Amino acid sequence: MGKGRLEAFSDGVIAIIITIMVLELKVPHETSLPALWLIYPVFISYVLSFIYTGIYWNNHHHLLHAVQKINGPVLWANLHLLFWLSLIPFATGWMGENHFAEVPVALYGVVLMMAGIAYYILSSTLIKLHGADSALAKAVGNDFKGKISVVGYALAIPLSFVSRWIGLGLYVAVAIMWLIPDRRIEKVLGS
């Protein structure tokens, strides 16, 4: 089956996720700068989650661009990824509203880790469908960035209980790693 509906559905869900996150930003009732300062954790949480959602949207787009077809297992793997991404607004809101308390920061990491695992499952399912010698398989390779991301989240979760700032720092570090453009798929498809 074709991939068009899967792409459109996924784009719509991701757009809704971003919309839900921005709607959680509540405007201060005062007009002073200190009033803005009171909501900085909510805003920082939003920015980090917006970046993560954008990273997933971008990589999902590239992943689907490299394939010609999908099947039932791909549909379920994609829904699995969208499920974890749909929890980002909840985890973001809880973390921001509670000023980066340890448990919400750890839960945020659980959601990110599960989204990373779900993305790996989706890419593996697509590679299985298209074959080990496909352009997608060559582009993904050993997926070092994907694996190191999950390890980073797995470390950040327990470290969040030692220091929430260590956990947050690891989440930011992983996001920065993904902001450096990953041109594997573009390179393989361009050649």
TrEMBL record:
Membrane topology listed for this record: Multi-pass membrane protein
Ranges annotated as spanning the membrane: 6-23, 35-55, 75-93, 105-122, 153-180
InterPro entries attached to this UniProt entry: TMEM175-like
Compartments, as annotated in UniProt: Membrane
Leader sequence segment: none
Xref: PANTHER family: ENDOSOMAL/LYSOSOMAL POTASSIUM CHANNEL TMEM175, ENDOSOMAL_LYSOSOMAL PROTON CHANNEL TMEM175
Record keywords, A-Z: Ion channel, Ion transport, Membrane, Potassium, Potassium channel, Potassium transport, Transmembrane, Transmembrane helix, Transport
Domain of life from the UniProt record: Bacteria
Protein name: DUF1211 domain-containing protein
